[in-house]
Request: fold
Amino acid sequence: MTGAQAQVAQQPWFTQLFQHAQKTPNQTFICDSRTGIEATFTEFLYEVLAHGARLKETLSQDIQARLYDPNEEVFIGLLAGAGFEYVVLLFAIYSIGGISVPMRAHVHSEEARYFLGACNAVLLTSSQEAAEHGESLSTSLGIDLFTFSPSPATEYANAQFTLMHESSKDPSKTPYNPTRGFALLYTSGTTGPPKGALYTCNSLVLGTQSYLDRLSLSITDTWLHQMPAHWKGGFDFILAAAYAGACLEFCSSVFSPTWF
Reply:
């Protein structure tokens, strides 16, 4: 990325986000009641690409090489509550070929050690709100921390996106692999230690498309999201809204019968 010029990889999720940003650039994609952030598809897509570039820069040359190896899996922890920053980091990790490991913002240190250790995570990312806890985990677990940092409004105000041709070989972009993991979600652990379920890029695309057939979600809809984002239900709703182009309103911090 250079300034407001950004190349978008032609692959699932990004093709959808690119089309939304082109067709409805000023439509609100995310309303975050906790932080007061309202972001359009243009602002969101720019932040994803910007954070993806920054993320890659923090990784060693050895780990960056692993991102290009179809036989390797690079796991990156995601410490954030459901909201704008969570979704940006989720797609930023995907943009560089990494696999997200979502955790609640105030996950216990021993839980984090288990979740990140089981998959040999190479990095921990966090929202601004979870940054202090992220620093503590980073120190105790011996893993580097990357914290969300908003881009200057002047950068994405005039953002222009270009969809890369499928055949183009950009050395800065990780080749798309549909069988590669997108996210590692852990179960609640009701019947024993939590078990990690790995969802591939292709399985989530197919699952989301099937999900949308039943939801009939469209760009004219608003989805009220009041669930934890590290659980499968809350995770699925985020992907469904992103794919359909619906407005995603994170409202757990204010949700009540009166507010509704």
About this structure: Residues 211 and 240 are 7 Å apart (CA to CA).
